[in-house]
Amino acid sequence: MEYKNKHVLAPMVRVGTLPFRLLAAQYGADITYGEEIIDHKMIKCDRHINEYLGTTDFVERGTENVVFRTCPEERNRVVFQMGTSNAVRALTAAQLVSKDVAAIDINMGCPKSFSISGGMGAALLSKPELIHDIITTLKRNLDNTITCKIRLLKSSEDTVELARRIEKAGVSALAVHGRRVPDRPRDPAKWDEIADVVAALSIPVIANGDVFEYEDFERIKGATCVMVARGALWNASIFSPSKSSWEDVKREYVRQCILWDNDVKSTKHTLKEMIAHYSSLELAEGKAVIKSANTENVAMV
Ligand code: FMN
Fold this sequence. Notes:
This protein is α/β, with parallel strands linked by helices. It has helices at 18-26, 39-42, 87-97, 113-117, 128-141, 156-169, 191-200, 216-219, 230-234, 246-259, 264-278, 284-291, 295-300, and strands at residues 7-9, 31-33, 37-38, 45-50, 55-60, 66-70, 78-83, 103-108, 145-152, 173-180, 205-208, 225-228. The longest helix has 15 residues, at 264-278.
C-alpha cells in the first residue's frame, strides 16, 4: 500500500461502515479504515456474496447481523481494523476477510474499559511480546499489508521505543494518535511527539489527531501521511480542497446509507454526531432522527 501524502479516514466505531467510507472516498480520502471489529465477533461470521447490493457481507452465523460489509470498489483502499488480544484468534478473523481488503490493522489505542478488560486496544501498549506475537503471526500467514494504530506512551522516549519494536515485528506502517491513554478528546494532540516517532522509524508513519480543516493536512509536518477522525465525521468533505456544506454532506450520506442498506443504528449514530456538532439534537431535525425506526424514516427528516 502506498502511504506518501495520502489522506486517511480514521477508524470510527458505528461510523466507518461502507456508506461512510465510500462517502469519504468520494470527497478524496485515499485510504479508508473500517470501524474496529472484535476478533471474537468476526470469527462467528460467514462470508456471503450479496448479489443484490454487489457487496461482500460478513454475517454472524444464525442471524442476519452484518458485521462487516465491503464492495470491490474499495478493495484497494479499505483497511479492516480489528480488536484482539490473541494472535491465533486475530489470524482466524483476518483470514476470513483477507481477500476482500487492502490491509489489516490492529487497534492498540482504544482506552474504553470494554477493550482494556479484554486485553485489547490500549492494553496492548504495555505488552510488547504479545504485540510481536500478533504481528508476526499475521505477517507470516497473510499477503495483506499489516499495520497497527497506537497512542502516545507516558514519555516520548517510551513511545519511540515501542514504535521501534513494532517496526521490527514487521508492520508496513504505524498510525500514531497523538494523545496518551488518559487524555480526553478535547486535549490537544501532541504533533511534536508524533514527529519524534517519525524521526526514529523508517517505515511510513500515519499522524492522527486534531485535523479539522483541509489545510491541517499540510500542518502536520514530517509524517508520511495524515489520518482524520472527528473532522471527517462532522464533514466528510474535509478530504476535498473545496469543503461542501455539512447539510449537503449529510444528504449525500443518507443517500449512500439507503443505497448500501446501512444498519439504521449506525446511520442514526453518525447523523446525530453531525447534527450535535453543527446544530442541536434538541431541534426538530435532531428529535426526528432520534425517533426514526428505519433508514426510510431518516430519509424523510
Ligand atoms: N480509534 C480506533 O482505533 N478504532 C475505532 O474503532 C475508533 N472509533 C472511534 C469512534 C469515534 C466516533 C471517534 C470520534 C473516534 C474513534 N477512534 C477509534 C479514535 C479515532 O480513530 C482517532 O484516533 C481520534 O478520534 C483522534 O483523531 P481526531 O482528533 O481526528 O478525532
